[in-house]
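Exam revision sheet. Question 4 asks you to relate a sequence to its structure. Input first:
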Amino acid sequence: MGKLTGGPYYHLVGRTGNNVGRVVKGKNVFSMRPAKSNRPPSELQLNQRLKFGMITKWLGSGISDFVALGFQDFDSEMTGFNAAVQYNLDHAVTGSAPNYVIDYPNAKLSRGKLSLPATPEVAAVAGQALEFTWGATVGSLNAKPGDLAVCIAYCDMLDLFVMSVGAVTRVALEYELDLPADFAGESVHCWLAFLSSNKKLASISAYLGAVTVT
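Answer key, structure tokens:
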């Protein structure tokens, strides 16, 4: 059942008859309920569902809040999380049906306007940890010393993310991310990104490669 929060057809939330309403970024989006079809899905539709489900599950497994912030300004007509799903569906899926996989180097966990620093890198250090380092950002109006560093590691074999948001700021130039003991010996994919101190702006995420945890 839908709910009207104002006059007729104003802020309709939910479904009423064939009318479907939702609020996206403070705007009321109004559409007709799609008609049901008795036709079986085509192979193309099935493949698209496979890819969509894979990307949605991946982005939703522990980092959904961050990617929603990271893509909050990417598409004015979509929520941040939905924009992240769409972007990665278009750019970060490889393989052939039904064996699709995520193309991690092309995956983006944020895509905003803040500047990335020079030469971001990551290296494994003893004790199941990763050392993220980056250079100073010089001469950019889209970077501040107090920007929050976001360090992300993902283990494909364990299907687990480990992330730190704001433990250090841009000016620190380094951060050591501790990983769980069961990450030892596993390969992890790593990204670095930044958020403004009020979390209203984000940088594009930088893929730093895959490293083996020691």
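Marking note for examiners. The radius of gyration is 20 Å.
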